[in-house]
Each structure stands twice: as C-alpha cells, then as structure tokens.
Amino acid sequence: MVKGIGAPILIGILVVGSYIGLDSAYILDQNQQVVVVEFGKLVRTVKEPGLHFKVPFIQSTIYYDNRLLDHDVQPTEIVTKDKRTLVMDNFAKWRIINPERFYMRLKTEAVARDRIKDIIYSELRLDFGSHTLEEIVSTHRDQLMKQVTKRSNSKANDLNMGIEIVDVRIKRADLPPENQLAVFNRMREERKRIARQWRSEGKEEAQKIRALTEKEKVIILAEAYKKEQEIRGEGDAKSIAITAEAFGKDPDFYTFLRSLEAYKTSLTSRSTLILTQNSPFLKYMSLQ
Q1: pTM of the shown model
Q2: What's the mean per-residue pLDDT of the chain?
C-alpha cells in the first residue's frame, strides 16, 4: 500500500522539480538582451548570450532586441519656410542600448515608437519650417536629415530612454492632393513662359542672321557688278583700240565690212526701205 502511494508522489515531485528547473533557466540568443524583474522591480540586465538562471516563480524575464529596429509612421504634414505644405513620409533606424533604462522609462517597443515619432516630428517641423521647399527637396536634403538625426538622438539621450536613434530618412515628400493641381499648373505656366522666351530669342537671332546674310548678299552683288563693269570697260577699250587700229590700216575695207553688217541688219524679209538711187547706203550695191 505504501509502495503504491509513493510512486505518484515521486512522479509529482519530479514534475514539480522539472517545472521549477525549467522556470529557473532561460536561454539568451545573440540578437537579444533581457531584463530580470522581481514583482515588477528591476533586478538585473543580461546581454551575454547563453544559458542563464533566475529565481523561479518570483523572477520573470523580458526580452528586447539588440539589433537595429525600424520605425515607420504614417505620412504627416509639415509647413515649410515659404508657406508650402508638404506631406512627409519618413522612417528611422533605432536600437535599444540600455535595457535597464528602457524598461524603467518605456517598458515596450510600442511605447518607444510613439515617443520616437513625437521626437522626430518635432525636429522635422523645426528644421523644415526654417527652409524653403527647394532646399528641402533638392539642395539641403542630406544636411537637414543629418541635423534631424543628431538632434533627435540628443533629445532621446536627454530623456534617458535607453535608446539610440541611428538614422532618420525621408521616403517621400509630396504636396497635399488639394495643392498638387495648382502647383502643376504653375509648373506648366512656367514651362510655357520659358518656351515663349526661347521662341522670342530664336526669332530675334533668326532676324539678325537674315539681316547679316542680306547685307553680305548686297556687298557681294555690288562687288560683282563693279568687277563686271571693270571687265566690260577693259573689253570695250580693247575693242575700240583694235577697231581703230584696223581702220587705220585699211579704211575702205573697214567701211565695206560695216556696210555689210548694216545690210544684214536692215534688209530682212519684213523690212521696207525707201531710198534714192544715189543714197550712200546703197554704195556697195550699185552695179557701177
């Protein structure tokens, strides 16, 4: 009878002992860190990976990730220095560097994300509110985000939250839907203005080119006409000189040639001449 009762007791003791043993041991991975609490009061923090022990039933463990964590929030509106409203979609990289302070101030990652969102948003409003839209989107973007990251991390340190904000970046910066059409219209009008300016400058340049071409044309034609007259004058002078020389050698023969040319020109099939018989024009046509 005693032996029959002892077996269940032994089994119960083994079960209770196993449960106690399991509850008193815990394993920590390389990407984890843990705080051990006793009735809600912090006892110690453990960062070394491996097998560790605690007081069963009385102490409990809370695990935190020691890797970089993502922080991504819904887009929020920010007003720039030139009174432009931007819908800013940003994200951040952060990590828990002091589990003890993190547990005492924040307890959970959800609470930490809410606090980080408030810190980053306030810094974004401060920095972007002192810069224009062009500076935020293009020229000063990297510098601004570095400043936001630095000040956000400094504020988290001042609050002793046990976290480090490593990086803050902008995923997207859009205009509110109600402003997009007006901005697009302004951009369209600006492009049209630039196009009109280029066309006007092109027409002006074309007129200059045409005027210069016309001027060169007039100069070339004038020089050509001058050259033509000079050549024609030289030719006429040579012709006159040759004619005078020929006339001086045989005046009668020259007169005869000139008369033949006059006959050829005047006596055509459709010409009618009324001349006297003694007309000098008919000198070389006379039979006498």
Answers
A1: 0.56
A2: 82
